[in-house]
């Protein structure tokens, strides 16, 4: 089990998708398709929908809050987001989603090193207390 | 320590639940808590990124604030929208998107924000003082206001920027606190040839490298000329804030918090010292282009929005020639007005320059639908262009862009990179 710091509370289940580089959601993810669209990103073309998404760094555009909100509205969002560092941009999109009554996903601050215990694709469960555990499907 | 609010802030939070101030304060409190802030800090200005349409959630948010009686409490400028309101024919948008994009821009204007519609509010008179606490969105504007003006903001995104503008507060954390503004990484650019450091084309490449290298750390750069221009610093910050999460950099001997290296590091030992090499710059120069060869279909400049000085440089380079390819220059409506008043817009249009106001080519469909290869002198356009427009990109200097637009194919002066 890995403990994260809860940035936005909630629960979520999905397969671990560990991004191999930092990302800007704006200019990086198409919120309608839920896919990575930046051709320079090593995970170009990958779907983030329904995953437990580990992000090594949130970079780039401050419009990434809006893309996060659109992912929620379009129901193409990850099941949970695990960020290496809290910031006021990505998680804020989820906070606004709560305010607008959308179905949201939990956001945790988690040390990426601690997540090494889980192989890529492991089915994970994120609990409201911030614990991340491998879960049988 | 948990977040403590003042009585005024508690009153705002406890106001009518559907009211805009209570909604803004609820979101601000959530943000402050997740950032670990212990209190809020009063801010004196805001720049709102959230007027750009990315989907209808942004309209819903803005109109809910309007319905709740939202009104900005500090001088507030607006970022680009998804439409050129002065020349609507410049943007291809279906009726729904055009309507929603317009409603999103209108919502913020109706809350009292100035309809500046520019990513470079610092070019249209929004210039906070050194040390002033502000809340700005738009990654390049954040880097500029912190680094070049010495005012203090963190990286704020859509929605939180508006919440800060309505409440005149921001979470007291990160770069709002003086101690966190010290450089931990020192970049030594003294070995870069002086002739290269004088050229505009160097700065987006340096910024691209800086963002990838330092991520979210504060860096101090030594060895840049004291003559470095605001446009060069703007280009450096915009590129660094695209590839990284750079919100503040110092240029020793140039920017307001870095008279000396000791000022920039606040007397601490840096955790990392990096000497810039030719290989580092060549790597990030190569990264900025995704196409090879001479094929070219369009040229775009003005990210961040073109300044008057950049238009002057463009006019000099055009020098009576005519372009054989579409050439877009994006700018603020205020800058365009200045250009018109000076009688300088006409000759540029005659040469084939399409001047885009209020928006830009990577945030909304403006470039020809057929796609192809886009040339730019902007590190930010080069970074976001492929994903947002479908175009491949070629990076070059403004001079390269003009020469290529005349020739109808990519021509680049590679000699400037000789090192």
Task: Please outline what is shown here.
The complex is a heterodimer of chains A (137) and B (419). Chain A has helices at 64-73, 90-99, and strands at residues 2-3, 5-8, 12-18, 29-30, 35-36, 52-55, 80-83, 107-109, 123-126, 131-134.
Please describe what this structure looks like.
The complex is a heterodimer of chains A (137) and B (419). In chain A, strands 1-10-9-3-6-7-8-2 form an eight-stranded mixed sheet. A two-stranded antiparallel ribbon of chain A has the order 4-5. Chain A has a single domain, classed as Phosphohistidine domain (Glucose Oxidase, domain 1, 3-Layer(bba) Sandwich), CATH 3.50.30.10. Chain A is α/β, with parallel strands linked by helices and 137 residues long. Chain A starts with a strand and ends with a strand. Chain B is α/β, with parallel strands linked by helices and 419 residues long. Chain B folds into three domains: 171 residues, Aconitase, domain 3; 105 residues; 130 residues, 2-Layer Sandwich (Aconitase, domain 3). Helices cover 39% and strands 13% of the residues of chain B. A five-stranded parallel sheet of chain B has the order 12-11-10-13-14, with helices on both faces. In chain B, strands 8-7-6-9 form a four-stranded parallel sheet. The longest helix of chain B is centred in the N-terminal third of the chain and has 16 residues. The mean pLDDT of chain B is 97. At the A-B interface, helix 1 and helix 2 of A face helix 2, helix 3, helix 9 and helix 15 of B.
List its traits:
heterodimer; A: 137 residues; alpha/beta; Glucose Oxidase, domain 1; eight-stranded mixed beta sheet; two-stranded antiparallel ribbon; 2 helices; 26% strand; B: 419 residues; Aconitase, domain 3; 3 domains; five-stranded parallel beta sheet; four-stranded parallel beta sheet; 39% helix; globular
């Amino acid at each position: 089990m890995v403990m994260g710091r809860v940035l936005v509370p909630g629960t979520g289940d999905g397969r671990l998708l560990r991004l191999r580089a930092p990302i800007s959601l704006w200019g990086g993810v198409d919120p309608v398709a839920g896919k990575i669209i930046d051709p320079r990103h090593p995970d170009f073309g990958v779907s983030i929908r329904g995953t437990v998404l580990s992000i090594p760094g949130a970079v780039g555009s401050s419009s990434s809050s809006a893309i996060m909100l659109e992912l929620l509205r379009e129901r193409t969002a990850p099941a949970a987001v695990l960020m290496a560092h809290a910031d006021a941009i990505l998680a804020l999109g989820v906070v606004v989603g709560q305010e607008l009554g959308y179905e949201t996903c939990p956001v945790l601050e988690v040390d990426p090193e601690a997540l090494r215990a889980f192989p890529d694709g492991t089915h994970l469960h994120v609990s409201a207390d911030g614990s991340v555990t491998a879960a049988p499907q | 320590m948990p977040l403590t609010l003042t009585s005024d802030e508690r009153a705002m939070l406890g106001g009518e639940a559907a009211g805009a101030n209570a909604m803004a304060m609820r979101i601000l409190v959530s943000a402050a808590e997740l950032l670990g802030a212990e209190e809020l800090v009063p801010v004196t200005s805001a720049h709102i990124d959230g007027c750009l349409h990315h989907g209808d959630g942004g309209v819903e948010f803005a109109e809910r604030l309007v319905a709740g009686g939202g009104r900005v409490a500090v001088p507030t400028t607006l970022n680009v929208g998804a439409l050129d309101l002065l020349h609507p024919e410049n943007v291809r948008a279906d009726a729904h998107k055009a309507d929603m994009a317009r409603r999103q821009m209108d919502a913020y204007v109706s809350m009292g924000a100035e309809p500046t519609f520019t990513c470079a509010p610092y070019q249209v008179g929004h210039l906070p003082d050194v040390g002033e606490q502000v809340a700005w969105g738009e990654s390049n504007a954040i880097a500029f206001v912190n680094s070049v003006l010495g005012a203090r903001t963190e990286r704020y995104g859509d929605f939180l920027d508006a919440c800060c503008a309505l409440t005149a507060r921001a979470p007291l954390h990160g770069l709002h606190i003086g101690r966190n503004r010290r450089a931990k990484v020192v970049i030594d650019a003294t070995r870069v040839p002086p002739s290269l450091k004088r050229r505009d084309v160097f700065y987006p490449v340096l910024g691209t490298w800086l963002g990838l290298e330092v991520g979210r750390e504060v860096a101090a750069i030594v060895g840049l000329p004291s003559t470095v221009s605001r446009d060069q610093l703007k280009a450096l910050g915009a590129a660094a804030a695209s590839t990284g999460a750079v919100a503040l950099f110092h240029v020793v001997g140039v920017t307001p918090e870095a008279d000396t290296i000791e000022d920039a590091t606040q007397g601490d030992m840096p955790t990392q010292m990096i000497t810039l090499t030719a290989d580092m710059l060549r790597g990030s120069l190569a990264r900025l282009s995704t196409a090879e060869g001479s094929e070219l279909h369009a040229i775009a400049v003005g990210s961040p929005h073109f300044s008057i000085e950049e238009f002057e440089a463009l006019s000099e380079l055009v020098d009576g020639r005519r372009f054989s390819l579409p050439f877009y220059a994006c700018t603020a409506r205020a800058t365009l007005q200045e250009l018109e008043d000076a009688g300088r817009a006409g000759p540029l249009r005659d040469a084939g320059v399409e001047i885009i106001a209020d928006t830009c080519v990577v945030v909304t469909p403006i470039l020809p639908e057929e796609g192809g290869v886009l040339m730019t002198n902007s590190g930010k356009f080069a970074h976001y262009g492929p994903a947002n427009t479908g175009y491949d990109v070629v990076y070059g200097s403004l001079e390269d862009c003009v020469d290529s637009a005349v020739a109808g194919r990519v021509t680049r002066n590679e000699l400037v990179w000789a090192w």
